[in-house]
Amino acid sequence: MTPSIAQGGASLLISWSIKNKNVLVVGGCEHAASRVFYALESDAHVTVVSPLSKLCDTLHARLHRDEFKLVDRHFSQTDLDGKSLVVCVSRDEHTARSVLTSAKQRKIPVNVSIFPELSDFWFCSTHRESGIQIAVSTGGNGPKLADKIRRKLAGSIEGSSGRAVKRLSTLRQHLVAADKKGDAKKRLEFINRVTDQWSIEKLAELTDSDIKKLVDCYLNGEHHIPSFSIRTGTVKLVGAGPGSVELLTVAAHSAIVDADLLIVDSNVPKDITEIASGHIHFINVTEEKHAVLKHVETLALEALKHGKDVVRLVSGDPFITGYGVEEYKILHAHGFQPVVIPGLVSKPQKLPYKPTKPVITPPVKVPEIAPALETEVPPVKHVKHTELSEIASHYRTVHQVAHGANSTVAAVSYALSDVAFSFPVFQQHTAGDHLHKISSNHTLNAYGHKTKIVSMATRVGTGSAVHGTLSAGNGAIKTSVVASSPALSVLIPSMYEISRQKLGTVFHVSTSQKIDDSVELIPGIGDVVSAAESGFAVVTSSNVQESYDMALASHIISGINSVPVLHAYDGAYVAREIGEIHVADEKSIKAISGYLSKNHGVQHKSVIDSIECVFDEMSAAFGKHYQPFEYFGSKSADVVIVSIGVVSELVKQLVKDHSKIGVVSVRVYRPWSAKHFMETVPKSAGKVIVLDDGTRGLFGDVLSVVYSGWKHAPRILKAEFKPAPDNFSVAGVAHAMSSFIPALASVKDKDGGVVFWDYEKTRDVAKNVFESSTGLKKYVSVDSTGIQKVVVSQLSKSTAVVKSADYIGVHAKELLSDFNIAKSVMRKGTIVVNAPWKTIEDVEKEVPGQIRAELARKNVNLVLVDADYYAKNFTLYLGKEREYVVEILSGVYFHLKGDAKGMAELKKRCAKEDNFNVAYTKLSAVHRAIEKLKHLSVPVYWTTASELHTISHPAHVLNSVEIESVHFGEEKEKEEFTAALKKKYHSYLPLLFKEAFKVKKALRPDVKDGYEVTLTENIRVTPDNYDRNVFHMEMDISGTGLKYDIGEALGVYGHNDAVAVERFLHEYGADKGQVVEIEHEGKLEIRTLSQVFIQHLDVFGKPGKKFYAAIAELATDPSERAHLFHLISTQGSDDLKLLADEHTVTYADLLIKFKSARPSVQKLLWLIPTIKPRHYSIASSQNMHPDSVHLLVVLVDWNTPVGEYRTGQCTRYLSTLKVGQTLTVSVKPSVMKLPPNHSQPVIMAGLGTGMAPFRAFIEERAYQRSLGVDVGPMVLYFGSRHRAMEYLYGEELEAYAEDGLLTHLRLAFSRDQKQKIYIQHKIKEDKVMLSEMLLKHKGAFYLCGPTWPVPDVRAALVESFEEMKGWSKEHASEVLEELKEEDRYILEVY
Fold first, then answer.
1. Among 70-74, 527-531, 579-583, 772-776, the range of highest mean pLDDT
2. Does the global pTM surpass 0.70?
3. Is the peptide bond before 742 cis (omega within 30 degrees of 0)?
């Protein structure tokens, strides 16, 4: 064959990889923007040189997204430093020539738009689609013509070409992975043969199965390339759920990412569509319904016929709820089988059309989830499991007092689990707390070992730990979860996977919701409704006894049928309800555990059959026959109310007094059985009223039964009832339904019940009363938001809130100032107040008018007792006073109620005292207090007292999550010192006669173990134009005696800004030169007032509630006083939080704002706490720097919502220190220690200033090596935003790496490229090396920096152990925990 003759004059068209290379673009016009785009498309690091004012709009937008670095000026030759490619689009000839000349001198390839003939390269007109790129060049002679030619060529390219490139790339990757010999030439020949034999269309349709067959063909050495049929396209109907990428199911996420075409509703959030890689076509949801359907049909069928994968993405979850049935039918009619993938949604989304009637989802089999609706359930044949029935017949119970449903479910979860996970939203008084208490007592579970308790952070992704545990054991590891219902939002993605794999587990979920943005909890099942479509069976309980029974039943159902079960119980009331219940004895629990071990997954019935079977067989044990739907009331009821959860308890009480009303309580919410529901509702019912809490979940389920073949279906109505403290009662439920049943409008709550109002110290009064009573329930409501925790205990025979008590005990008089306690007492009821008052005039002075008016209108019997007085008088031994007060108040209740049994129990408790004197004086104090009770008649004129007071007091406390009592910042600052203002001449004697008075000069003499050091260097290490001010400090410690070890932290006692202090003292009217004498541990310190406020008092710190309370008492201006008292009240908690967290209000701010509430300067010295040290990791080795200590610090700064710039107190102080100034420091030990053996590998991961301790590590190893010590490898992963801006100690690190001390330097600059890269990505790449270093060579891993990457870093290490060692995920996690115990996996995060 004759070779072609080279004609010359052409350009060499090459594909040049500039990934991670530095490209310089000079100019800021749109032409420059196109060049920047080309470079970014090629994954280069781009720098643009142009004045900011001359940037075009496109470049402004890219700059805002941090896609390139801007040099805000004209070109300078230094801009070429480190550049691999230069592009100049400037129209200024002088600039263009300067760029061209300078680049050529440095031999850097350059393109100058106005001198194409002198340029080293030209830009081609490029077309890019999927995996293919086409470039057209005219050699710089006609760029516009090149564009025309390019467009013409692009129009002739089939869409399959790009897909063919992508699929061929996938084949190549599989061949590389499978080819152990690494024969690149052979692989290329094989790929060429596939390309020659198969058409572009066929290559584009390569499936994963085809690729596997081709790889097998290659490995077997076959020369024949097989032919495979071209596949047809697939279609998936996907719900976007609540609109968050993080809450998408795994299946939905994968479908959206992998689709060739997405047909998307226009109201689907951009956050979700941005993850798509294929073509997106938006549908206008405001169009008519038929137009939407036609549009979807046309687009989908065209793509499917060409073999494309199509996703129909809609807002909400209409394909699951049934409203998307028309689209399903259209596609099905054309021969395609749509796959339905659920999203997550708690309430119906806005649909693009209005259905004519509710439609039930057609019988589509969805592999991702279990069916949400069982409309046709075959007749149940209850075949008794002989063994389970036998266990039930021998089931024995013990009687005990249950302290809320949290304790009962925790007991069952612990007894029947190998591993129990806890996902609390609130950190205290949860079922997880009870699990830990059981474990701390070294209790063995029913299988003879301790249950492993795993407390998880409630955040996105943590649910995978549960899924992983279940998968690792293939269901053999008995696993349960206790969680608060808000945690379900992060658990749902894992729940779908658990359900899909049919992994048996039990989720015990405490259901509740908050009122708006407060911390108050009320009943609510909205989160459970969202999780109900995950495929979990859902059973509910409505009181403490049921919570125990259903917990037990759930474990049995899950075990024998290998199905995940969600047990929902009320977390607002039942979780805190204290009552007498019957629980299985130890022998019975062990019998059940043995049964579950032998019969794991043996049942193959439908889920509803399995649940009903367990209910039947365990009825003898429970003493009650539970059913999927339970009916209470008349068998011939005209109206039936449907309810779920704790609200059912109220409805049951309501129907007792109404013969024509019944109630259906939903026990099994999922799977929803229409058949069982129809069988439960009496045929006489003409109306069915669904009591819905606003989520519409239950109403939708009941309504669906109408369309499931229910003959003579009654009318289905919805009554909305949102439980709240003021309506959670029988009357509250009745009022919600009164529009449908007018007779209920007159229902009132019955009188009766007891309520005790306490602070923490007297809350045991309710306990004493409860334990001496029978048949009562005790419910505790706690408000932890105030200065002191308020505890309200209600005792009654009902689950409802006590609305009209016959006895109220107010055991702290201050509560009468904050709450309208009288509102919940019945007419002529009794209110007992623990107070030192003696007359009605005393009461009048202290009790607000609104409350006095309520007392008068109800003609209340007011009784006064001074329990604190008698407790003090009769207390013989320190520490017993609280017990005396509790017994006195308990005795008063028993006396006034005529409860002889209770009084006898009180005497027994006292008699148990070891010391007779204590027992005797306790009883004497009780009797004396009872003798001195004061019964007061409430004056009639009090009925008008409320007119004098405009402040409205709440009638109940916030039913908040209970928080352990803690000291406020100001309280713990009451140190052993006194401060006094003195005349200036008082300080003269010590200063004149220093030797006699032994005077010493010190910066902070009050600091124990403190050192005064001198600053020798303070250098900013980030550029001045960078928004993060990171600085390196060095301090001279010679002669101070300061010693520090590797990894320790330096505590710095910062000073307040002197100018700000002077301004504050001036506005406060204080003399900055005033002498202050401070007596501290027997020593006298003399300072000026200015010094005290600069060096000692944290006047620019955040005040606690007690400070607000202190200045509120001093306020003389009525409006300021009212405002301050509002802030510390329960109603003002949100406003106080806003001031503290967002506006970052300081002590100084408050004192300046509330001018009438200013304490004396003397009092301020006591009220404002002292400045505490801030600790910073030491960034040096003392062996390397014997007389110096180094720090690496970032300035903490922010803007308040009103635009005020603020800085952290200590970092501001450090950033402004000048060389030669002294500062006070101390040393704090740390867990960051080098391994004891110098040869052990050290792996360090530092983010930003988290680099500090690792600089010390490296210096220490360098020092050891200089002594001839053989040191082990050192690996550093360093991460920050930009290499050019924040490569901290970069030159040092490069030098250590060049020297070989730092054996591996892994850098992750997250914003230097289009796709963000973090240290966890680098760690994943090194899994082989890390696994060997940590496991084989006993290395140690350290992480220092913010907390957010910890889960990903941990996951990367666990994954490396799994892959390298072949371990299970559970075993790999356990090994990592062992490393942690051996101090070889150490985290210092903040």
1. 70-74
2. no
3. no
